[in-house]
Structures are given as C-alpha cells and as structure tokens.
Design brief:
Number of domains: 1
Helix content: 55-70%
Strand order of the largest sheet: 1-2
Number of strands: 2
Number of helices: 4
Radius of gyration: 16 Å
C-alpha cells in the first residue's frame, strides 16, 4: 500500500488505495437496496439488518486511517477473510435450501 506523510508527520494509506474498501462499501450499498431487501424478506421472512457488511466497511475504514501500514494490511486482509468465509457459507446454505 502506498502511504503519504500528512502535515502532522503521520502517514496513512493513500487515496490511490481506495479500491481496498470498494468491495465492502459496495456490499453495504447492495445490502440496503430495496431489491435485495425484497428478495431477503421473500426468502427469510425478515429484512436483513446488514450488520456484518457494515462491520466489514467500518473495519476497512479503520484500516485506511492506520498510521502503521503493517497493521492496516492485516486489518484489510481480515476484512476480506470475513467476506470470503461469509459468502461461502451463505452460498452453501442457499444451495442446500434450493
């Protein structure tokens, strides 16, 4: 990840690395969309509160604000690990129920 020195001497992950949070942010917008909520309600009988996706986005944003690049990289890796595990489990459950 590229970093830049700010006026206060600290360094953060550059905006050029914004693609690292693009997927979690996209997941939040997809989750709160009316079409997704309709399908979720149709299948499960309740609306999805999107907590897991919001937590992924918050963790990614936290990583973007880290001065320590190694910690930022590990947080972003953790976000993508959570996402991949969750998507695998959701896919397996949907496959079994259909």
């Amino acid at each position: 990840m590229a970093s830049s020195n700010n006026d206060d001497g600290s360094s953060r992950v550059n905006d050029s690395d914004s693609e690292t949070c693009r997927f979690p942010i996209g997941q939040v917008f997809q989750c709160v969309s009316p079409a997704y909520q309709f399908v979720y309600y149709w299948r499960w009988g309740e609306c999805d509160n999107c907590d897991e996706r919001f937590n992924d986005m918050k963790l990614c944003m936290k990583a973007k604000l880290q001065a320590d690049q190694e910690k930022a990289k590990s947080l972003i890796a953790e976000v993508y690990l959570f996402i991949s595990v969750r998507e695998t489990l959701v896919g397996a459950v949907q496959y079994l129920l259909c």
